[in-house]
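Below is one protein, fold included:
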Amino acid sequence: MAQMNRRRALQLLGALGVTGFAAGCGSGDDSSEEPAAGSPIKIGLIVPGSGPNKAIGDDITNGFQLFLSTHGQQLGGHPVTVVPAEEGDSAATGKAAVDRLLKEGVLALTGVVSPTVMTGIRDAVEGARVPLIGSNASPASLKGVLYIWRTSYVLDEPGVALGEYLRRILDPSSRIAIFGTQGASSRDVIDGLRRGYELGRRLTEEPIYTPDYANPGKGVYAGPIRKALGRKPDAVFCHYTGPQAVQFVKQLYDGGYRGPIYAPGFLTEGTVLDQLDDGEKGRDRRLIEQHGIETALNYSADLNNTANRVFASAYRKTFNTSPTTYAMASYDAAQVLDKAIRLVDGDPNPTQVNLALGKIGQIDSPRGSWQFNQPRTPQQKWYLRKVQLDGRMLSNVVINELATLG
């Protein structure tokens, strides 16, 4: 195939209907020669376009598209069309998305926010033998898969990391009030907390599971909080995200709690801190500063490594906000696909890509280097983050490494 110049390459990408960003710009003028691109490929992106998980879906979309925009709109030397599909919030909606994308002839799938959806599409993905690189949902029950890989985490891991930390810093007689939503996700997290904490000691308080509200109103957590605070806990551990996280923290303070809060990093990820930050004289900011919220997560936008400096800078410039763990994991999903497809000679097919995913080795990621373990999830570091003032805004600031898990 004859080589083509940059202008011709851009014309071709436009004709192929590549979604998202324009192809990355190189140096030099239109007369410079570039290697010919491989055959076009399609990648299916499964994310929610509405509902409480939309913000996470947007971050996942942004992270994947950022990688493409900074890599010539290609993966492994092949021009890419990203085909989006609505995830919904159930196994049925997730399976419908997978079925539609398979009919589109996608080479691989990525995305998936909800653990319910991930569990529900397992058989469809495994049966189709098309690799799925999940960039968020990772229930601990998802085992024995061949075609499902995850660049995020297993849901019990933040609980394990925090459990080990709390065992070191808290007195054995300490009472920890434990909260989470009803469903498998919080149970995975709290099971991890038990495994990390209960070595020679026990958690004295039974977990309180609250309804999984999409948009909780004021006062919905007041009863469970009142019950827990009646036991005079020394600390609170909780698992909430998005609107639930905002309301839980506010109502915890409304109930009179004035102690430390520990949680997986999802509690303060995304726009949560913006909604909790009520200004210099606000109660919530003052209490957070005085008593602390510490979280465990596999990423923070302030990590000081070369890959993250490049990624976070490009993300802020493009989207005018700091990247989240959801965006980072999706960026890495694109990165591992790029590496795997590059290992395949000629036109790749799904089976070849799946085999290649097991051969890519270490990933130079914004979170720090990691690699896939045998269950097809990352072996990676977990960081302790504390909510602190960064200038005039509340931010998650890394204060220590907790553990390497996976």
Notes: The mean pLDDT is 91. The radius of gyration is 22 Å.
